[in-house]
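Researcher: Please predict.
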Amino acid sequence: MDNQSLDELLGHSVDEEALKRLSDAVRECRGERSQRDFAADIGVAQTTVLGWEAARNAPSLDNLEKIARLRGELIESFIAYLYGRDPGESLDLLSQVKATSKEKKAEILRIIADDLLE
């Protein structure tokens, strides 16, 4: 992922419904944490989270991926959700892992092990 915005990726501005779904998703991910604490966890300014929750702007792809991970989703599924599509249309994580090479699976296991040991 890079710092490219969702607008740039799609080649058009993000529609109001997608921004509303994003707003709801961010609020859900934030839970009881303050916007400031949530922003620090993601690595953005509190005003950025405020903009997402107010449905005024969309995150960069890097930040969109962070939000998707907090939701336990792949970014592709999260984007499908934002646009009102069935996230099931994207391959689920288990299907993707099954279709992955042994080398990639080993890399995934290393990442999981490192994460669990933190």
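Model: The mean pLDDT is 83.
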